[in-house]
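Re: that backbone. Tokens:
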């Protein structure tokens, strides 16, 4: 059953990438481009002994158009974020740090 769940998550991720083109040929996941994820990485990747960076304007801009229910799905159902060193708790703090009006609860 666990293998089936992983397969479904991978299929959903592939589907999101396939249909998530932003019109400029760049793929996106949950309406965030790779550049958006890269811009936010220093703010959500905990490294012992290193202070977390405040989110950049590029990160906040990417978050302003993100599909949060979609991102929550991946945070709850995938080990993918942990594989890339993303701390889901830190990720959930970004909208408030970016002063985005909408609150996020996964």
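Recovered sequence:
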């Amino acid at each position: 059953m666990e293998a089936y769940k992983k397969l479904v998550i991978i299929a959903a991720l592939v589907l999101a990438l396939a249909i998530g083109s932003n019109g400029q040929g760049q793929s996106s996941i949950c309406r965030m481009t790779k550049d958006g994820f890269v811009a936010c990485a220093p703010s959500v990747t905990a490294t012992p002994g290193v202070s977390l960076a405040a989110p950049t304007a590029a990160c906040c801009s990417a978050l302003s158009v993100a599909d949060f229910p979609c991102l929550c799905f991946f945070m709850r159902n995938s080990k993918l974020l942990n594989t890339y060193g993303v701390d889901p708790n830190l990720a959930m703090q970004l909208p408030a740090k970016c002063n985005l009006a909408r609150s996020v609860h996964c």
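The mean pLDDT is 76. The longest strand covers residues 28-29.
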